Batch of 3 targets.
Target 1
Amino acid sequence: MPHNNTLDQQKSIHETQDQRDARKRKSGASAEKKPPPRTGARSQPSRLPAQHLSVDEQESDLEVRPRFLAPDYFGSQKLQGQAALITGGDSGIGRAVAILFAREGADVAITYLSSDDDARETQRCVEAEGRQCLVLQCDVKSAAACKKAVAATVKTFGHLDVLVNNAAFQKHADSLDDIDDERLQETWDTNLGGYFRMTRAALPHLAAGACVINTGSVVGLRGSAHLLDYAATKGAIHAFTKSLASNLLPRGIRVNAVAPGPVWTPLNPADLPAEKVAEFGKKTDFQRAAQPEELSPAYVFLASSTCSGYITGIVLPVTGSVGAI
C-alpha cells in the first residue's frame, strides 16, 4: 500500500536524525558554544563589563565605550542641506544618529538633560563631519523648554526638516508594587509626553517632505516583566507613531519609528546591577548587545526621502533576533 511506503520513509528519516543526534551528544558537539555571528562591516564587542553607572555618570565613564562613529559608513548627501533636531542626542543612539546625519549633509541640534561633557563630545564629532551642531539643554517634560529648543534650532539653521524623538527614562522594577504614581508619572511624562511636546512644538516648522522619527523599543513589541512602565510607554510610542503618521500624511510629513533591541548605551548600565550588565544582550540571536553605530543607519534610511519617501507609519525592528514582532 502507498501509505506503508510513506510511513517507512518517515520512520527512516526519524531514525537517521536520532542517530545523528546521539552521535553529537556523545562527542559533545551539541554542547559547544559557538561564537556570536558576525554579519556587519566589522567585529563588535560581545563581552560587556560588570559595571553599574550612577545616574549622574556619563557615556565616557563606561569601561567599554559604545561605538558610535560607524567608520565603514560613507555618506552620499542623503540629507544634504537639511536641519535635524534630536532629543537625547548627547549619548547612545542619539549621538550615533547625530553623527551619521551630519555625514549625510545635515546640520544637527541635540538636546540633553544634564550630561554636559557627553553633549560637547557629540558636538565635537558632528563638527568633525563638517556640519554645525547646536547643543541645547532641555527637559522634555516642559512644554516651554521644548518650544524654546525648536525655536533655537529654527533660528540657527533657518528651517527644520527632521525631528528625532529619542530622550527616555528607564528603571527596572521586580513588581508592579514597586512603581508608585510618582515613578509612573516620571516615566510616562518623559518617554511619551516628551515626544508629544517636542513634536507639537516642531509641527509649525515642518513643511511637506519633512519627517518625524520616534525611538521605540523591542520591549514595546513583546513586553518586559521587569520594565513594566518603560515597556508600556514604548508600546504607546509605537501607537503614537502610527496614529500621527495617518494624521500628518495629508501634509506630506512622514512619521516612523525604530524599535531597537538591547543597545550598549549608558541607559542600561545606569538601570541594571553590575552582574546583569555583563549579561546584557546575550539572549538575542546575535548573543550580544548592539552598538549605537548599528542602529544609526536605520534612522538615516527613515529620514531620507530618497530612501523611504513611500514609507510612513512603520515600526522598524532592529532587535538582533528573529521573530521580534
Note: The two ends are 45 Å apart (CA to CA).
Target 2
Amino acid sequence: MKRNYILLSLLLLTGLSSCKKFVETTQPRNELAADLVFTDDKTATAAMVGLYSNMNSFNYFYANVLMNYLTAMQADDMYYYTGFENYDVFLKNTLLPSSQYVQSMWRDQYSYIYHANSCIEGLTGATALTPSVKNQLLGEAYFMRAFLHFYLVNMYGDVPLITNTDYVANGVKPREKTALVYDQIITDLKEAKSLMADNYPSGNRVRPNKAAATALLARVYLYTKQWPLAETEASDVLRNNQYALLKDLNAVFLANSREAIWQLMPVNTALGRNTWEGFTSTPATPTGTPLFRLDTTNLIKKFEANDLRLANWTGFRKLSSGATVYFPYKYKIRTNNGAALTEYSMVMRLAEQFLIRAEARIQQDKLEDGRADLDSVRIRAGLTALPTSLDKSALLLAVEQERKVELFVEWGHRWFDLKRTGRSNAVLQPIKSANWQATDTLYPIPSDARKTNIHLSQNDGYK
C-alpha cells in the first residue's frame, strides 16, 4: 500500500503544507492516491522531491541539527552553552532508550525509508512516465534507501533492513546483521548509479545524481575496508569536471558551489532564513553569544597554525568573563532580510572524496599517492605539504587529523571516523572520563520501537 508519504508529497506540490503529520486513511483512498501520483512526470517528481523537504523542513530535524550537531557532541567537536538534558545525553554519552532524539532519529529515518520504498514500488509499476524521468526518480529512491540505511547502521549497529512497504511484516522484523545491511546498501547504490543521470535534473545540486551515488559508494567501501573499490569510486568522482575544490573557503557552502555533490535546498525561509544550520549556530547579534559552541581544547586547538579553515569556518565571541568561545561558521547567513537564498545545506562534498581516496591508497601502501590527496586538501587550507618521510601509521593519523578539521560538525563524520577506525576509546575516554564506556559507540535501540516490535534486541550497555 502507498501510505501517507505520497499524500504528503502532493500537499508539498500544491503548497498546502510542508509539515503535515501522518494521517491514516482508508486503504482504497491510499491506493487511489498512489495510482494518480505515478501517472504524471510532475506528480511523480513531487513524490520523490517531497522526501528531501521532509528531512529539512524545520529546525532540530534529521538533516540539520540532529545529524550535524548532536553527533558532533558525541565526538569531541561541540557542546551546548548551558545544560540541557536532550543534548547533554549526547555530550556525556548517557543516552537512554527513551532519550527523545534517539527515538526520533530512528523513527524519522525509517519513515523516510518507507517514503523511498513507496516511490520505488510506484515508479517500478508506472507506465506513463517519460523514461528518463522514471529512471532518474527510481535512482534517487534507491540512493535514499541506501543513504538512510547507511546512517542507521552506523548509529544503531544491526538494524531491521526494510526494502518494501509491507508495514505489517516490517513491524515485526528483527535486526539484520550489519554486513548484510551493507550488502543491500551497495546493491542499491549500484542500481542508483545505473539509473541516474550525470547532470542534476533541476540544474541545482539539490537532488542526487550519479556522482552522489558514486561518492556514497566510495564512502561505503571505505567503511567496509574494501580499499581498492573505495579508491576507484572516489577517483570517478574526482575526475568529474563538474566538481572542484574551491580556493575560497567562504564559497564552499554557497548554493550550487562547485564543491557540492549534494545539497538540500532550504524550504522554510520565514523570517529571512537561509539554512537551519546558519540560523541555529550564528549569534543573533554582533555581540550575541552562540548557543552551540565548538570545543576549544579538543577542536579549536587542534588546528595547525595558519589553517584557513579556522579563520573562515569558525567564528568567536568574547564573553564578559574574558573567555573566548567559538561557534561553527561554515554557514554565514542567519537571516538575509528576504533576499535570495545564497546558501544551501551541504550533505556531500568533494573534499571528502580526496580524503576517502587518500585513506584507501595509504591502506594499500600507495603512500605517495595517498599523501598527494591529503596535500590537495591541506594546501587549499593554506597549509604546507606533508613531509615525505611519514610512514603508513603516521599518514593514517594525518588522514584522521585532516578529516577532523575539514569535516567538523558535518553529518557525523568525526563520530563515525572514530568508531570505524577503532579509535573511540583512545580519543574519547580521556575526554568523557567516567561517562565513557566502549558500548557508547552505538545508540540504544529506542524503547518505543521495542514496545511495538518484540523481536528487536537491545544493544550492549543499555540492558
Note: Residues 1-32 have pLDDT under 50 and may be disordered.
Target 3
Amino acid sequence: MARTIDYGNLMHRAMRGLIQTVLKDVADNGLPGAHHFFITFDTTAEGVEIADWLRARYPQEMTLVIQHWFDNMVVTDEGFSITLNFGNQPEPLIIPFDSLRTFVDPSVEFGLRFETHESDEDDAEDEPEDDPEPPQHDAQVVRLDKFRKT
C-alpha cells in the first residue's frame, strides 16, 4: 500500500492543538478583554460526560458559551472539563477534543469547523475490485482572511 500524507488529519490535530493552547491559557489566566467562545460538540461522542438532563435536551449536539461565568476549567491533551451555569444550576462537563465540531471567538471573528468524513476504505471493502481506479482526493482549502478583522 502506498504511503500518503494525511493532510486532513494533520490539520485537525493542529486545530485541536490551537484550541488546547487557548483554553489552557484561559484556565490559567481567565478570559482576556471581550474574548468569549462558542464551542459546539457532539454529545454522542465517546468520552463526553454531561448531566442526563442535558443529554436528553441535546441528544446530538450542544453549543457551550464560555463568557461570564465558568469554573473548574482543566485542560488535558485529550480535552477539557469545565463547570458551567445552566439556569442557576452549576453542571460539570467533560468534553474531549475529538468531539468538537466548531470553535468560535466572535469577539475577533475567529472560527474553526471540524468536518467528519466517513472512511473511503470502509466503502471500498464492500465493493468487488474489477478495475482499480486511481485514488481521488478532495482538497480542503482554509481561507484565513475571512476570519481577519477589517
Note: The beta strands are 37-42, 61-66, 70-75, 79-85, 90-96, 100-105, 110-113.
